[in-house]
Amino acid sequence: MLTHLDSAGHAHMVDVGDKPLAQREALAEARVRMQPQTLQLIQQGGHAKGDVFAVARIAGIQAAKRTAELIPLCHPLALSQVSVALFAEEPDAVRIRARCRLAGQTGVEMEALTAASVAALTLYDMCKAVDPGMCIEQLRLLEKHGGKSGAWHAAG
């Protein structure tokens, strides 16, 4: 059942005001596939725009904090922690993992997914001049914890 519909069937923001505070956490990931030379350029720090991983990490963190401005009906949240990590996967990909935490009344899955996707888009933006054929793939939620529904982990 979709919970973002009111009794008349119209989209609305769900009222979470009566829900108890709970520690909540979500982990999401994305993958960016590229030419092996592009990954080597990033790893060697030879990119003209600077440290690609550092800029993508900051972009992901900033995006998580602004998720409610980007995703309609998403609650604005006071995140207590956001981390974005980028890992080179030889020979031709970068895996991005974004984790968000808070003590709140609603989950942080959208914040983690937004962080991973914006970090991937930033990596693409910084490298598109040398590799316009990069592919952002596998954006997904890996796990979530806390709240009424408890823990969930992606299969495989």
Name of the level-1 CATH class of the domain at 37-143: Alpha Beta
Provide the spatial order of strands within the biggest beta sheet: 2-3-1-4-5
Spans where pLDDT lies below 50 across 5 or more residues: none
Alpha-carbon distance between the termini? 26 Å
CATH topology of the domain at 37-143: Alpha-Beta Plaits
| Rg value | 17 Å
What does the largest sheet look like?
A: 5 strands, antiparallel
Helix-residue proportion = 25-40%
- How much strand content do the residues show? 25-35%
At CATH level 2, the architecture of the domain at 37-143 is 2-Layer Sandwich
Pathway: Cofactor biosynthesis; molybdopterin biosynthesis
Pfam families: MoaC
Family: Belongs to the MoaC family.
GO molecular function, one term: cyclic pyranopterin monophosphate synthase activity
Q: What's this model, at a glance?
A:
This protein has helices at 36-43, 52-65, 67-70, 109-127, and strands at 22-33, 81-89, 93-104, 135-145, 152-153.
Describe this protein's structure.
GO terms for molecular function: cyclic pyranopterin monophosphate synthase activity. Homohexamer; trimer of dimers. Belongs to the MoaC family. Substrate binds at residues 73-75, 110-111. The protein has 4 helices and 5 strands, in the order βαααββαββ. With 156 residues, the protein is an alpha+beta fold. It has a domain at 37-143: Alpha-Beta Plaits (2-Layer Sandwich). Strands 2-3-1-4-5 form a 5-stranded antiparallel beta sheet, with helices on one face. The longest helix has 19 residues, at 109-127. The protein is elongated, with a radius of gyration of 17 Å. The model has no long low-confidence stretch (mean pLDDT 90).
